[in-house]
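In response to reviewer comment 3 from the previous cycle, which asked for concrete evidence that the modeling workflow produces usable outputs, we include below a single protein chain processed end to end. The sequence was submitted unchanged, and the resulting structure tokens are shown without manual editing.
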Amino acid sequence: MNGNTMKKKMMSLLLVAAMVLTTLGVTTLGNTAYAAENEIAITVTVSNAGELAKDAAGNVAANLPVTVPADTNGTATVDAALKALHETYCPGGYVTSESAYGLAVQKLWGVENGGSYLFAINGVGCSSGVGGDYVGNGDQLTAIVMKDMTYWSDLVASFDKSAVTTKVGEQVELALTYDAVTYDENWNAAHAATPVVGANVSVVGEAEPFAVTDTMGKAFVSFDEAGTYIVTASGAVKMQVQDWSQGGAYVEADAPISAPACVITVEAEEEELETPVVDEDEEPVVEDEEQAVEEEQEPVAEEEEGEKAPATGDASQMAMYLLVMIGAAGAASVLKKQK
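The workflow returned the following structure tokens.
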């Protein structure tokens, strides 16, 4: 076999190996993108009769992270989101059934009350049912077990912020609104965020409220110690509601608000570092010249070693890289002999 033929064969082997590695990389990236496109991440808050619900372990159901399988549009039905929520935090607590009006919820967060539940996406009440309303990536879903079993007048309430990071002693402004819904002659819904006045704002776990919302629905809160606090509110809005036991006649009632949630992370104040005073007459300390050179060179050596390290933890890809290295070494050896 002559030298030219050997060279061509070795080059062919190297090209095939490179193509295999490229294919593996593209496939891995493609699978990652496919998985990401087929699931969405949302947060869910559960209100039970005007209070934030808790799971079996006693954890407050506020801004719970939930991953939901998505459809081809990158969305998921509220029903799918509630199934994922309960599978993670309240197994067996969610039951639905088919009805003449679509999918009906029979149990929510383990509570069965004859189907008296409300749902909202980003503070706006759902109007098409759990099978007809959709959530997208980053949405905030609220699931509500109603409190008013006489007029079913519960209102969807929410703060303008679901999470805040602040410092000890700093004031945080929260605006509390409810979703006011009106309908036109064709039963098309119109939603308006309306301030909740006189609501008690409190921290979950504390008996007494520490603020009351003003005429704009605003309250100001601050904390003296670092930590994580879940802030909620309770109250009612006096309004005209329908009494279905009297054929739908309007009566005045106190419509209870659902429990909103804002998770506030309070960080400790950073201590100010004192600036060292330098004596102008004092001679600067000169480090040993060899030690200084070594310290300057060490980071460079570490950086070079980091650059040489493989950028992947996949064992199969590492093996392929080693095969290419061996092939390249073999090719170099053959070419050297041919010369």
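Residues 20-24, 26-35, 300-313 have pLDDT under 50 and may be disordered. We consider this sufficient to address the reviewer's concern, and the full set will be provided in the supplementary archive.
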